[in-house]
Design brief:
The chain is mainly α and about 60 residues long. About 90% of the residues lie in helices and about 0% in strands. The protein has one domain. The protein is built from three helices and no strands.
Length: about 60
């Protein structure tokens, strides 16, 4: 169980690191735009992300 969780965490870190590694300028610009977004938009985006993740887990399992 813990091994799978650590594998998932490692893959998450690899995937999250790809964009800033390949295009640091664009990544910085995206973060600046994200910082300008209101809380409601960020919450909706987070909710959609979580629901897609749960859906993918359901399909895989």
């Amino acid at each position: 169980m813990w091994q799978e969780l650590l594998i998932v965490l490692a893959l998450l870190l690899v995937i999250e690191g790809i964009f800033p590694f390949l295009a640091p300028g664009r990544f910085r610009a995206a973060l600046l735009e994200l910082a300008k977004a209101d809380d409601r938009l960020l919450r909706i985006t987070g909710l959609i992300s979580m629901l897609v993740g749960v859906g993918l887990l359901y399909l895989v399992k």
